């Protein structure tokens, strides 16, 4: 059995970063290695993530592994009961209770590997991610390649008709990967609050009353 980490008990590994940073690839790689070590592995993802295929996690480069789509984080516990390693992809789409479930599973001896976007297209922390990253035993923050300058990208740029998406748009647009680009901080463009306006070097609008 591969035990690169704690010598007994479970733990939480978090893999985060922007779109195209290789989170799904890294999750698949770790689960494949656990399988080679003879461990029973399972991967869960939110049912709303319909990227390419409901029954698999598929990376942008086409690697895939079988996955179960679940709606509620409560469904993770019964699923994990039969497995040594539980992978969770797109964990940012689950409600905050997913963190409690991950902690309980790790306490119970399960190796939990959770991959998700640390920030949304507004460059704001995404859903349960801040707490997950705080509570995880191990955290890897991956970088993509900035499509503008080729540097390391940490942000997900959302584009609508080639322009930065408005600041007050919908957060979730799963599967529409053609509307997103990986960008570095210098190349990232924040959209204005009004639809369709935004641009490089534009001053950002003041945040609204809800902080957005
Ligand atoms: P994530 O789950 O973080 O969105 P994936 O694991 O699905 O990422 O995909 C990573 C793969 O996407 C890379 O190995 C590479 O083949 C491809 N890719 C496409 N665009 C980029 C980019 N701008 N930067 C890095 N990788 C990219
Ligand atoms: Zn750049």
Q: What's the layout of helices and strands?
A:
Blueprint: E1 11-17, H1 23-36, E2 41-46, E3 56-58, E4 64-66, E5 68-70, H2 76-80, E6 85-88, H3 97-107, E7 111-117, H4 129-135, E8 138-141, E9 144-145, E10 152-153, E11 155-160, E12 163-164, E13 180-183
Parallel strand pairs: 1-7, 1-8, 2-5, 2-6, 6-7
Antiparallel strand pairs: 3-4, 9-10, 11-12, 11-13
This protein binds adenosine-5'-diphosphate (ADP) and zinc ion.
What key attributes describe this structure?
212 residues; alpha/beta; Rossmann fold; six-stranded parallel β-sheet; three-stranded antiparallel β-sheet; 13 strands; disordered C terminus; binds adenosine-5'-diphosphate; binds zinc ion
How does this model look, in words?
The radius of gyration is 18 Å and the shape is globular. It contains four helices and 13 strands. The strands form four sheets. The protein has a six-stranded parallel beta sheet, with helices on both faces. Strands 12-11-13 form a three-stranded antiparallel beta sheet, with no helix packed on it. The protein has a two-stranded antiparallel ribbon with strand order 3-4. Strand 3 and strand 4 form a beta hairpin. The protein has a domain at 11-142: P-loop containing nucleotide triphosphate hydrolases (Rossmann fold, 3-Layer(aba) Sandwich). The protein is an alpha/beta fold and 212 residues long. The structure holds adenosine-5'-diphosphate and zinc ion.
